[in-house]
Each structure stands twice: as C-alpha cells, then as structure tokens.
Description:
By secondary structure, the chain is mainly α. It has one domain (32-150). It has helices at residues 24-27, 36-55, 71-93, 97-119, 127-148.
Amino acid sequence: MILITKWRTTGHTAAGATHATLNHLLMSGFGVLTNRKRAVIALIHSVVFLGIAFHGFVSLKVGVLHGLAPVSDFVLMTIYLIVTSILAWLVGISRCSQERLYFALCASSATFGLLRTVFGDAALPAAQYLRVLMLTSAVVVGALILRSFSRPVPEDALPD
C-alpha cells in the first residue's frame, strides 16, 4: 500500500480523530424519492401502470404453464421479473417507511402480474384484483409523498 499523504499533514487528521454524531432527522428522509420531481415521476408511473392493470381485466391470461403460450407472454414474464427485482431493490434502499411502503406496493403489484402471467387467471383468480388494489394503494401513498414535498411555507418564515 502506498501512502499518498503523510499522516497529520496540514488539512488532514488521523482516522478517528474527530467524532461525528448521527443526524436522526436525515435518517427519516427519503432515500430514492428525494425531491418533488422524482415523486411526480413515480406517481405518473403508478397511475399509468394502474391504467394498464385495469386494462388487464379485459384480456384474460391462460398462463405459460397451461399450454402453448405466445412469445409475448415470455417477454412479459421477463419484463415483470426485471421490474419486480428493481422494485424489490428500491424497497431495500428506501430510508423512510412511507417510501418503503410505496415501493413494496409497486413490487407486490408487479409480482401479482408475474404470477398471473405464469399461472393464468384460472389458477390465481385474485391476482388481477390484488394487482389493481396494490397499485391503487401505491397511487394513494405516492400522492401523500408528493404532498409532503408541497407543504406550504409558514408565514413567519417568509421574508418581509
């Protein structure tokens, strides 16, 4: 190992020389949806996928395991696997419970979509209803998250 700077060089301190305290206010903040723009984008995605889930009531799924499945079902399975994995990862890196709940609802909705594609509506009749329920709940939580970024500034904080 090559030392780049000498120990105790001007502007440097030894490891452990200073003590830092944990700011608990930052710990309760958002980890992924850190600003209003990200919250708006997440909410738009949830609303669009809720519309797609409602459209899923029209087209019944036979399931990949129950016979000859079209190539589009295998593509859809791959997309659901990728989306579910990413959303599960976002649940893991989320900081506050509200953000974690939002991504967990989205991930569970994608999981129900995946199960519906694999097993079909006959094997899991509740999957399409649970998918819509999870996305509806995600839209509500996403709206609450967006609202938390839109709080009015108290009058005593405004400049004269």
